[in-house]
Specification:
Layout (H helix, E strand, L loop, with lengths): L6 H31 L3 H28 L2 H22 L7 H26 L5 H29 L4 H21 L26 H30 L2 H25 L5 H14 L2 H5 L3 H30 L3 H5 L1 H29 L3 H12 L1 H14 L6
């Protein structure tokens, strides 16, 4: 029987929820805002690329501070830098498109500082028995926020003409970030680790190391995530030319995701991860099919609802299995910061490769059919992730 979450776990969930809410209010429409200023897929792609590059490098560089100093400072600083990003977007307005690289780097640094600290603390406040439950609650919170945040933002943008709506939601995000910082002071200060080993994330590739499975699986996961993170919302807007439709799309898909994450987090047992992940990977690939026929609001909705329904079957096993690996023995627990960095660098490599592939291929054949076939190819990479990690999830590790 799964144990319940402790007080620090619930508080960490709340801080995470506020950080995600701030992103949902504004981040959902950030690429739409850029697209309205300049209709250029490559520009959006490079903006995403710069974020992903900065995020991965921040994980690696800030790992020293998080292990040897104070994790909570990194977490709070990540919230502050993310708020600063939206403050600069408010200042730059439509001219934001002229500062894609520096702003993308700033956004990536803020995200990297927050998620590095969050992932390490998440590992420390959960164990093998509660990790799926915690991840399930992360999915539930994300879904509730995905229901309310973009729906409210889309309505505001549609009601307030011009850039006024965007300025309002960017300001709201700043306020939510501020509340998140205040709440984070209730999290207990975590113990410091030993000396941070800069090259430690790269030494886990000796023969028979389980990280030879976990790293390719994480990279394959990133291949899909890098492109889908910006492309889906943008396609909804391009197909409808209405921000409120984007909010409606997010409302419907997040509502489905809420139920799905709750169910999978509650009932998916460790022994079922093997087939659960495979079924989830196949199904989230299959739901891309309608887009090959035609890209419109209806087919995008079919894709979005299908993805929301089946994603937890894939995502919870691959996430929990990698974090279980970090808790495999005393040595891996001692080097948990470096292993969290390794996981993020693996995902980053996949994200960068996927985004570069999209930019290059679409640049050679700038047609909507190119976009949909790229979505199918990149959308099938969760199957590669399962192939890479299948042996690891068939025989789960024992926690130290």
């Amino acid at each position: 029987m799964k144990r319940s979450l402790n007080g620090q776990s619930r508080l960490l969930l709340a801080v995470n929820g506020l950080f995600v809410l701030a992103g949902a209010l504004s981040g959902t429409f950030l690429n739409v805002y850029l697209w309205k200023a300049r209709q250029d897929f490559a520009m959006i792609g490079w903006f995403t690329f710069s974020q992903q590059l900065a995020l991965g490098l921040t994980f690696w560089i800030a790992g020293k501070w998080v292990k040897e100093r104070d994790k909570m400072i990194s977490l709070r600083l990540g919230i502050v830098v993310s708020g600063l990003f939206y403050l600069l977007v408010l200042w730059a307005g439509p001219h934001t498109v002229n500062y894609i690289w520096p702003l993308g780097f700033l956004f990536g640094i803020g995200s990297g500082l927050f998620w590095l600290a969050f992932n390490v603390v998440y590992f420390e406040v959960t164990d093998m028995e509660t990790r799926d439950l915690f991840n399930g609650w992360i999915g539930i919170l994300g879904s509730v926020i995905g229901i309310l945040g973009p729906w409210a933002s889309g309505g505001l943008i549609s009601m307030l003409k011009g850039d006024v709506g965007y300025r309002v939601i960017f300001t709201l995000s700043l306020v939510v970030y501020g509340i998140g910082i205040l709440l984070s002071f209730r999290l207990k200060k975590r113990k410091r680790g030993g000396t941070y080993r800069w090259m430690d994330p790269f030494r886990h590739f000796q023969k028979n190391s389980p990280w030879r499975q976990a790293v390719p699986a994480s990279a394959a996961h990133g291949l899909r995530e890098g492109v889908f993170s910006f492309l889906v919302t943008l396609l909804v807007y391009i197909s409808t030319s209405a921000e409120w439709k984007v909010g409606q799309f997010s409302f419907a898909t997040s509502l489905v995701s809420l139920v799905s994450f709750w169910a999978v987090g509650k009932w998916l047992k460790i022994s079922h991860r093997y087939y659960g992940m495979l079924i989830g990977a196949l199904l989230i690939t299959g739901v891309i099919g309608p887009l090959l026929w035609k890209v419109n609001y209806f087919t995008l909705m079919l894709f979005g609802i299908g993805t929301s329904l089946f994603m937890p079957l894939y995502l919870l096993p691959v996430t929990s299995s990698v974090f279980d690996l970090i808790g495999k023995n005393k040595d891996s627990v001692e080097h948990r910061v470096e292993l969290v960095v390794l996981r993020e660098l693996s995902i980053m490599a996949g994200r960068l490769a996927g985004t570069l592939l999209f930019i290059v291929v679409f640049g050679l054949a700038p047609r909507m059919t190119t976009v949909t076939w790229l979505m199918l190819g990149l959308g099938a990479t969760p199957v590669l992730s399962w192939i890479a990690i299948r042996k690891l999830i068939r025989e789960p590790v024992d926690a130290a």
